[in-house]
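Re: the 92-residue chain
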Amino acid sequence: MQTLYLALALFLLLNLCAGMWRILRGPSIADRMLAGQLFGTTAVAILLLLAHATENPAMRDVALVFALLAAVTAVAFVQRAWPDIEETPDND
C-alpha cells in the first residue's frame, strides 16, 4: 500500500509540470493564478500522501498550514486583481 501512495505522489508531481506550463504560458493573470492555486492544492495532497506512507503525523500539520496559506493567497489575489470600482450614479 505504501508503494501506491508513493506512486500517487509521483503522479501529482507530474501534474505540477502541467501547472508550471500554464504559469509560463498562461494567456491571462487569472489563468496563472489558478495554476498557482493548483500548486498549493497539489502540495497539500502530496504531503498528506507522504504523511500516510511514512506514518509521519508532522507532515499533516505542514499540509494544514499549506492549505491555509493557499486560501489566504486566493483571497489576496481576488482583492488585488479586482479592486472595488466606485459606482457612479446613473443620470436618468
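Residues 29-54 form the longest helix (26 residues).
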